[in-house]
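Appendix C: a fully annotated inverse folding record. The material below is reproduced so that readers can follow the format used throughout the book. The structure is listed first as tokens, followed by the designed sequence.
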């Protein structure tokens, strides 16, 4: 992980993916890199991290009455979801 772009290193650390995991699980590493490439690449990761640093905390809102999902997720939310840490949609 020492040779990674600092933005990717930070992203993987935020979602709990270690350098050892990336080195040992080549299939997971390929999936993650492919996922990042298909969703805007390193530039999108950097932009998302910059947005997260600048943005004030979100204002809590009531869930929609009929249920539904947010349309935009951060890269940390997406990767955390892929790891099974949480699900961000409101109950239907």
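Designed amino acids, in order:
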């Amino acid at each position: 992980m020492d040779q990674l772009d600092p933005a990717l290193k930070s992203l993987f650390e935020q979602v709990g993916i270690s350098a050892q995991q990336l080195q040992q699980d080549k299939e997971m590493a390929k999936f993650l890199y492919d996922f990042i490439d298909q969703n805007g690449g390193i530039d999108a990761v950097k932009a998302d991290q910059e947005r997260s640093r600048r943005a004030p905390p979100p204002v809590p809102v009531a869930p929609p009455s009929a249920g539904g999902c947010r349309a935009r997720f951060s890269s940390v939310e997406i990767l955390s979801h892929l790891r099974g840490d949480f699900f961000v949609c409101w109950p239907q």
